[in-house]
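call fold(seq) -> tokens
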Amino acid sequence: MTDLEPLEPARGVEMYLDGKEGELADATLDCQAYRLEAFLDWCDEEGIENLNDLTGRDLYAYRIWRKEGHGEGRDEIALVTLRGQLASLRAFLRFAAEIDAVPEGLREKLPLPSVSGGEDVSETTLDPERAEAILDYLSRYEYASRRHVMLLLLWHTGARAGAIRGLNLCDVEVDTDEPGLDVVHRPAEDCPLKNDEGGERWIAITESVARVLRDYIEERRNESVDEYGREPLLTTSVGRASVSTLRDNLYCVTRPCWHGEGCPHDRDPEECEATAYKRASTCPSSRSPHDVRSGRVTAYAREEVPRRVVSDRLNASEEILDKHYDRRSKRERANQRRDYLPNE
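ret:
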């Protein structure tokens, strides 16, 4: 039997993520890091300072702890969410076994829950009315800020956060009669697209969106040139904004209390941890880039934009759009069909 070598959980996760750089897309790596944060929270809570000490019983306890929503301050999480969280932990445990930090086969003691039917489909979304209300607020109080531009582009294009992050100034045309964005796959420059070259496309934008982009570029954007000589569109004080930064920004601005709405969860703002920027994701009403994308698809469906057109614009098959993004209710879909099938 191989002797185990002591390793702190946080250091182990850091090594795992470092080893995956260049192997996984930036968005995937951010997702892995985000999912493993809960595991590190649990280790801190349980006083586990050495991965060598992990047992199958510990992993069972973690599974129950995570299922009950601990680690993010949320309520009980959905089965599909739990499966994703545990799958990431199993991948980490495989790595940990390879470097003699945990016993070989420990990952097998963390079985993944089965999902069936529509259980693998997230039900959260950014309702179109909420999206427009938040954009109105940003337009009034944070006009042409990075957060304003970020949500504006996510909402009006329906693009993934990785595609928006990868935009450079040379990809943005806002001073023409036909403004738009050139979405390009640049994996060698740390700006890949989910569907590689197949995700490359030109996305037309309205003049009103172009106007905000112009004002952002001229007045609010942090000047920056990356190591590849590119000028990123969305920047921070230290360079191109990461997907995790965009995600955190989105969690922040989609909290109802942030833009003046009352808390729908009866929380005291003075005590609620979600009012802190880094804990904004713990608000049950906060939304992710995926939720913005599903909200955009739902809005297109309500406006009866042809699915083929939506598929081309969002670079996703009609089947994927129907299964993972369209949040119309069964009744709403039936009512829309009735306009074409009066006998339904």
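DSSP finds 13 helices and five strands in the chain.
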